[in-house]
Amino acid sequence: MFDTLQDRLAATFKNLRGKGRLTDADVDATAREIRIALLEADVNLSVVKEFVNAVKVKARNAEVSQALNPSQQIVKIVNEELTEILGGQTRNVRFSKQPPTVIMLAGLQGAGKTTLAGKLATWLKREGHTPLLVAADLQRPNAVKQLQVVGERAGVHVYAPQPGNGIGDPVQVARDSITEAERKLYDVVVVDTAGRLGIDAEMMQQAADIRAAVQPDEVLFVVDAMIGQDAVNTANAFQEGVGFDGVVLTKLDGDARGGAALSIRKVTGKPIMFASNGEKLEDFDVFHPDRMASRILG
Ligand code: GDP
């Protein structure tokens, strides 16, 4: 994960080893290298600029430290700034005081929504909840079946339209699922919605209609981290068309660069709440900005 960035930053810090103190020239050279490393990682340009400036200001104002040498000082500053652009604090799910809590998943086809539904359900169960998965993706013929398979694997019930009733109305399915959850005492409802391969007005409208119908406590925008900065453009389109409260990054295991992860929080203003890093149900966790920053720094 983020191998190139990791290597580049490590090389930058190595150049500072053995220095007694940080000169302005050292700070400038380091800032330049960090800038290149972030641009190569496909981080959004405005995020790069803000990041590099913050590092420069902090490095210039850093007190001469007895405890940290210049290289360690820069690592500390970069760590703080990485944590900051990744969101600073961990953002937990806001559970409703009046169950069920409704979580809606939105994103492009192939982003990993259905897989995520299973992962989220597994995580919710572990946290002591009783989740219900809802198949409101009626666009793809196989989507309902796929969610049912995922639900079975995760050991959670899936609410889906009855076979033979035609394609069905996803908004109605989503609405009915809330009644079902209230009746059968599921305390969290996870609504999987339809995506398309690209931004599509009809898809957006459907997701917006589902949102209006079920009034979710959390709308999670699910995005494939491997698409780099395109993730930011897609996020902006979903923000405008549907609106969302948090981001789930998927396929981090296959992301060699890191541009999506490092740009999306700053550009959208929305927190990254969860991360997926594999195809198995357990390849998933709450997103902790500080831990991710430390991982990048190795
Ligand atoms: P959806 O169209 O948004 O519902 O996406 P799917 O859940 O069907 O996922 C699309 C593909 O991505 C599937 O082949 C998944 O197995 C795969 N996938 C989902 N999440 C991850 C992940 O975190 N890592 C990897 N490597 N593959 C994933």
UniProtKB/TrEMBL annotation:
An MF annotation (GO) of this entry: GTPase activity
An example Gene Ontology CC term for this record: signal recognition particle
The keyword Signal belongs to this UniProt entry's keyword annotation: no
Cell compartment(s), UniProt: Cytoplasm
GO BP terms in the entry: SRP-dependent cotranslational protein targeting to membrane
SRP54-type proteins GTP-binding domain ranges (all copies): 271-284
Binding positions for GTP per the UniProt entry: 107-114, 192-196, 250-253
UniProt-listed Enzyme Commission number(s): 3.6.5.4
Coiled-coil intervals: none
Subcellular location, principal: cytoplasm
Keywords assigned: Cytoplasm, GTP-binding, Hydrolase, Nucleotide-binding, Ribonucleoprotein, RNA-binding, Signal recognition particle
Catalytic activity: GTP + H2O = GDP + phosphate + H(+)
UniProt note: domains: Composed of three domains: the N-terminal N domain, which is responsible for interactions with the ribosome, the central G domain, which binds GTP, and the C-terminal M domain, which binds the RNA and the signal sequence of the RNC.
Function: Involved in targeting and insertion of nascent membrane proteins into the cytoplasmic membrane. Binds to the hydrophobic signal sequence of the ribosome-nascent chain (RNC) as it emerges from the ribosomes. The SRP-RNC complex is then targeted to the cytoplasmic membrane where it interacts with the SRP receptor FtsY.
Family: Belongs to the GTP-binding SRP family. SRP54 subfamily.
Subunit record text: Part of the signal recognition particle protein translocation system, which is composed of SRP and FtsY.
The protein's name in its UniProt record: Signal recognition particle protein
Organism of this sequence: Raineyella fluvialis
Record lineage: Bacteria, Bacillati, Actinomycetota, Actinomycetes, Propionibacteriales
Segment of the intact protein contained: 1 to 298 of 527
